Amino acid sequence: MGRILGVDIGGTNTKIGIVKGSGEIELDDQIPTRAAEGPEALGTRIREWVDEHSKDYPGIDSAGFGCAGLLDGASGYLYVSPNLPGWRDLALAGLFERALSLPVVIENDVNCHAYGEYRMGAGRGTQNFICIALGTGVGGGIIINGELYRGSSGVAGEVGHTVVKAGGPPCSCGGNGCLEALIGAAAIVDRAVIALARNGDSILSGIDTLTAKDISHAAARGDAVALEVLAETGRFLGIEFSNLVHIFDPEMIAVAGGVAGAGEFIMGPAREAFKEHATHPVQERVRIVVAELGNKASFIGAALLAMERHAL
Amino acid sequence: MGRILGVDIGGTNTKIGIVKGSGEIELDDQIPTRAAEGPEALGTRIREWVDEHSKDYPGIDSAGFGCAGLLDGASGYLYVSPNLPGWRDLALAGLFERALSLPVVIENDVNCHAYGEYRMGAGRGTQNFICIALGTGVGGGIIINGELYRGSSGVAGEVGHTVVKAGGPPCSCGGNGCLEALIGAAAIVDRAVIALARNGDSILSGIDTLTAKDISHAAARGDAVALEVLAETGRFLGIEFSNLVHIFDPEMIAVAGGVAGAGEFIMGPAREAFKEHATHPVQERVRIVVAELGNKASFIGAALLAMERHAL
Known about the structure:
In chain A, 38% of the residues lie in helices and 23% in strands. Chain A has 312 residues and is α/β, with parallel strands linked by helices. Chain A folds into 2 domains: 3-116 and 295-311, 2-Layer Sandwich (Nucleotidyltransferase, domain 5), CATH 3.30.420.40; 124-292, ATPase, nucleotide binding domain (Nucleotidyltransferase, domain 5, 2-Layer Sandwich), CATH 3.30.420.
């Protein structure tokens, strides 16, 4: 087993790592994405990064890329990305293959995250595993019978745009009541703004431009408004746990991403809401945990997916 | 390939068929279930049925059973059934094996239905296929990569108890806003009762104890209240299509069951609501159809699942 390049293209920064076939990280770095310069320019800068490290880490034989957006991992085709303006309808895998002179696998970043957690993190040893990533966006990755489930067009796992509250708040996707519109970072801030209008007795009322992080910090200091905002968020997350358990009956659901940093302030109420919605005790066997690998999960997962594809 | 016995245990009647390994039906019959007499008594009566037909149809070498309820197909264990009072926590496969002296596979009836449609009906030729059964209850069966997906405890596919409208109407499961509470037969009747209180100018206002069938018939005669009731039902079904497409990205969703008899009065609005909620044109590639095999799908699917298990 050689070395694999693992890349996680984010809206601002691109994480790059060198990963062994065992999944162990040898090197872990990041470079600016500069999405506006286009994918060719990013490919060139990744090539330069690889060249710079090739003496110390020779023998990289393939590369795995994680990228936010609707994309088909089988063909490496990106339909559209919310975080990378102008990147749409692109044969992205081929483009990076030319830049790097390496075989490339490209996959939705949350799918990579889920696969990384499945292989090296919280999901080790499971067969049916779901990872939900909470942040500005809300996404999911699904492992079924030990393999990443991609669906028939490669775009499975978009749990953020499943409707949990029909007629609920508007979502960035144009719909209403989607999970993302209920538990994404913007929804948490909106909920706090409404709560503060009712009850200004909060650390948060002094803050000009509120963020989800402010709300987590206030909750950690015992702020009642922040705690209730996160608890309400958690209750919707718990309903989603119940939905996923009713559909998939998985062994484990792991929650990853920035909002997961609010930890038990969200996860506690989420677990309670899940139990209220579970129809039968057998469904409560599912383990619901916080993911383990942080923001390294995606590039590890991408690298391991690339290794497996090219080992065939 | 020999003959397989296919059985679909319903709350009132049990359908029995003799199926060839090719999936073709050779004989198709039904007997009363009499659930209150218990599963041993039903097993004895099925044994009598088999004995009666053994001269004309010799060589039955296994049996597949579909049964409503939470059950684990791998072990043949029934946790609980909504339609069969008193049937709970039973090693049902072993019980029927003793009654019939045949190897038995038992599986949730909607899983059997989905598998029958996948192999012999609407889903032929697909790899990722979902079948939703609408009736008093609402259930689902999921085919992934050409195989029935059962989940880690065997209870996957319970789409009827996924929450689509948090805080919505109460459900038989104890939750609120589940799909079943929005589009099950009782929900359709409740919706009509509310609509009639607002607008009595309808064929339906003369009917004492309204049923979902009455509403379908009135819609077929152009009754505006009935049409709107079914359209609203369809819009929730369309939201569920969107949820399942966002999660699974399947090639096809088929809708089966009694309520599907309302046909385009429900399916038309459902398809429109689905398109409104699909985030990207690639998701609209999914084919959304009415199932083809009617109430024969479950015993065919059960028989084919039994054949495959015992051919291994």
